[in-house]
Amino acid sequence: MAIEQFYGTGRRKTAVARVFLRPGKGQITVNGQPFEDYFSGLIKAASALDPLRHVNKEGQFDLLITVKGSGKSAQVDAIKMGIARALVQYDDELRVSLKKAGFLTRDAREVERKKYGKHKARKAPQYSKR
Q1: Which is deepest, 21, 78, 95, 110, by most CB within 10 Å?
Q2: Mean pLDDT, residues 33-51 taken together
């Protein structure tokens, strides 16, 4: 018997989150660790579960999440988008509500590449007149 599950991919900067949504008791695992342990000390981490709160489905699903790349903050945003996409796969009626709340919008900002002759992407060496 196959386990009923729903999948969503979330991205932010270079972070990629794969979210598997399964009916359950609200257990959340990130890269094999409990959610609280993986994001310990990060205040923003609770916002990753906003899509579930928004549609009043908190505690009804077990989440199995694998996330890699970028930093913890970008990973939280990637997870948020992944959860929203998985919820849409679970029930297409939720799309309008999640889209209006901004959970399905991809933040396309990426790091600009460093150019030669510059310290960073745009920061130039100090100008010397003499």
Answers
A1: 78
A2: 92
Distance CA 94, CA 122 (A): 42
Distance (Å, whole) CA 76 – CA 80: 6
The pLDDT value recorded for residue 37 is: 93
Strand arrangement, sheet containing 33-34: 6-12, 15-23, 61-68, 28-30, 33-34
pTM of the full structure:
0.91
Predicted confidence (pLDDT) per residue in 104-119, tens digit: 999 999 999 999 999 9
- 35 Cα distance to chain centroid: 13
| Distances in whole angstroms, Cα of residue 19 to Cα of each of 22, 106, 112, 113, 126 | 10, 16, 28, 29, 46
Pairing mode, strands 61-68 and 28-30: parallel
Residue with token string 């999948």: 7
18 token code pair: 């794969």
What span, in angstroms and rounded, lies between the C-alpha atoms of 118 and 96? 45
Task: Find out whether 94 and 21 touch, Cβ atoms under 8 Å.
Answer: no
CATH architecture of 6-101: 2-Layer Sandwich (3.30)
